Amino acid sequence: MPAENSWTAPVAADKLDATVRVPGSKSITNRAYVLAALSAGPTLVREPLDSRDARLMLGALAALGASSEHTADGVRVQPLTDGDGEAAITLGNAGTVARFTPPLAALGSRTVHFDGDPAIRRRPLSPLLTALRELGADIDDGGRGAPPFTVRGRGGLAGGEIELDSSASSQFLSALLLAAPAFTVGVTVRLVGTVPSEPHIAMTLDMLRRFGAAPERNRREFHVPPATLSLDHYTVEPDLSTAAPFVVAPLLAGGSVRIAGWPRETTQPGDWLRSLVRELGAEVSLDDDGLRVTGTGRLPGATLDLHEVGELTPVVAALLCFADGPSRISGVAHLRGHETDRLAALATELTALGGDVTETEDGLRIRPVPLGGGVFHTYDDHRLVMAGAVLGLRVPGIEVENPATVGKTFPGFVDAWQRMLAG
Ligand SMILES: O=C(O)C1=C[C@@H](OP(=O)(O)O)[C@@H](O)[C@H](O)C1
Ligand SMILES: C=C(OP(=O)(O)O)C(=O)O
């Protein structure tokens, strides 16, 4: 009996033969919107993601005085305009909105109140708020170091030199770097501790350069001088992390899947999937038609450090449940501060289906054993919906709870998944 508000993830009856188009990258879309708002003139963001997180970002920018309009070609974002009075920003459970917009509020003169879903109140933020205060911001968080909090804009941010512990989320560092061209003296950030999600930092630096800034990096030290940003248009790549369940599907179902528009060069962490699935036995080719992945029936276990590509963990963990040997995932302790505690959620849900999955200090240990059907709880986490879909390819009766929560990054996911299976 299907659970209420659930989706029975379809089993792959035949080998796959499908072309899939995934929507624009969340990380690129929301960076493009922020940089566009900081620019001197309007920017057309082409092929952007339209999802909960992207809409939350546009809503936040509107509250800060940067209007936007959907046009036939994408979304045109106008520069931030200052104002006084009060404004409110709704964060949902979007890490990019919660981390990237407080510096923008500090650049203006409004008093801006931030809050969101219960889950965002539990996600790490305090190192960013502390850094912003050191750079000149007035922030009242009631000592919580988390939403709800209020930024009282003082009409600008001085900037300067700081040390930052960005080990709980790379987004603290990205947030400071993205806004830094507008700080009076720019910023110099010296990292203490390790930082996850290295490709997302490369993405931040690359996009800053495209908008006309001149960030410099010397290993753990970053410098962004003041700059006037400007870019007429920016085209967003397909989201390669959203593509993850489709990329791994042929390893479980056989046949081929082509992901249209896979870029030849990119800073996205999802590009690492090409080498992962090759290592796990698939045939992989990348050409002008996109990425083609063909299953070979082989699927060995693997030992993977996912520190740089943590957001891929739920889908990779689901895949490895079907390997022909044990696997170990490490380097992702920071996933405990993602949409939910992803390590606990994956261990709990996979164990409930009969799996042998245990949490370690910084990852998961997976011993493949036959799984059975049942409710797969998703904890309001889009990537758990995707992981549930992957499990369903091989296991009848996976009831993915609250599939609509995938709308954080891919509102059309369930339809696209069913189309892939229909060929
Ligand atoms: O900057 C970004 O766009 C992101 C950085 C990463 O965050 P963490 O470093 O907190 O894992 C990633 O997991 C998240 O999905 C998107
Ligand atoms: C961690 C993620 O999202 P956020 O941007 O909310 O941090 C994610 O998408 O996996």
UniProtKB/TrEMBL annotation:
Its EC number is 2.5.1.19. 3-phosphoshikimate binds at residues 26-27, 31, 169-171, 197, 311, 338. The keyword Amino-acid biosynthesis applies. The active site is at 311 (proton acceptor). Gene3D superfamilies: Enolpyruvate transferase domain. GO terms for molecular function: 3-phosphoshikimate 1-carboxyvinyltransferase activity. Keywords: Amino-acid biosynthesis, Aromatic amino acid biosynthesis, Cytoplasm, Transferase. Residues 14-416 form the Enolpyruvate transferase domain. It catalyses: 3-phosphoshikimate + phosphoenolpyruvate = 5-O-(1-carboxyvinyl)-3-phosphoshikimate + phosphate. It is found in: Cytoplasm. Pathway: Metabolic intermediate biosynthesis; chorismate biosynthesis; chorismate from D-erythrose 4-phosphate and phosphoenolpyruvate: step 6/7. Phosphoenolpyruvate binds at residues 26, 95, 123, 171, 342, 383, 408. It is an enzyme of class 2 (transferase). Signal peptide: none annotated. Monomer. Belongs to the EPSP synthase family. HAMAP family: EPSP_synth. Catalyzes the transfer of the enolpyruvyl moiety of phosphoenolpyruvate (PEP) to the 5-hydroxyl of shikimate-3-phosphate (S3P) to produce enolpyruvyl shikimate-3-phosphate and inorganic phosphate. This is 3-phosphoshikimate 1-carboxyvinyltransferase. The gene is aroA.
